[in-house]
């Protein structure tokens, strides 16, 4: 008796973890044949056309070695009815995943539903960000990663280099979590005001301000994925405090993906910890991030006032407040912050 499975998923794009799960299930269920069938996904910018999706699915099929794997572009109900007629008496399985359940059409009683385990999987949304940052390769079959790059899918685009301010804002907003957008725009506007006040380059301030948290949507493990993707070796502080990594990874993305100039890149690099010998733009981004209009904590008014009177004093206050908080929470303080404060105290 033939044992046939249909594996339905959004496959945007087909990814190693889901293919491995499907392969494992095919083995467990003793399938002779597995059919990969794409569910319609969201139409994100850069999402592939159906023909491109099927091309990638055919590549994905080659990575599953536990049975014969084919692909199917038809709707699920249609494919199911066809298989029922082709293989009367066959044992039929429908493989799905918990997050796709609401998109699955009801099938006849011949189909045994197998929900694949929902374990620690990189969410689709994060995969799209990693692709935009050119770091999705470790999560995809190599042929599919190549195809995505060649066809500029999922936000993988050279057009991110040297964007106009309007376009930069659009792209940044599409890569942030919605609850971070106001902060980032507030930081940009504040940075421009401070640049005007202190005679720094306003364009650089604006670009560094809007890009400073560009990788913040990626959680700790994905920050480490990004570093691996960029070939960066991390010191102990970063591996123990992956949250602070977004400054480093943000600067790498600003440089390699957005093609920003070194002044902008460096200002992003040092926006969470500061460092000794900060230049004017670096000070401005550090302080703007701390005091932009959406910030609300005791002491913020003092900081806002100081920022326009004495930028070094504002920087010193910001560093001191951060270090006090880290001490209270028994968290490690970076050497760069300690050196920044010592440098400010020396230069007064
Ligand atoms: Fe930040
Ligand atoms: Fe920030």
What layout of secondary structure does this protein have?
Elements: E1 3-9, H1 16-28, E2 33-38, H2 50-63, E3 68-71, H3 76-86, E4 91-96, E5 111-115, H4 124-132, H5 142-151, H6 165-175, H7 181-198, H8 202-211, H9 220-229, H10 236-240, H11 245-256, H12 262-269, H13 280-291, H14 300-309, H15 311-328, H16 335-347
Parallel strand pairs: 1-2, 1-4, 2-3, 4-5
Bound molecules: fe (iii) ion (FE) (2 copies).
Provide an overview of this structure.
The protein has 348 residues and is of the alpha/beta class. Helix content is 53%, strand content 8%. It has 16 helices and five strands. The chain has a five-stranded parallel β-sheet with strand order 3-2-1-4-5, with helices on both faces. Helix 11 runs antiparallel to helix 12 (262-269). The longest helix is centred in the middle third of the chain and has 18 residues, at 181-198. The chain starts with a strand and ends with a helix. The structure holds fe (iii) ion (FE) (2 copies). The site of one fe (iii) ion has 5 residues, from helix 7.
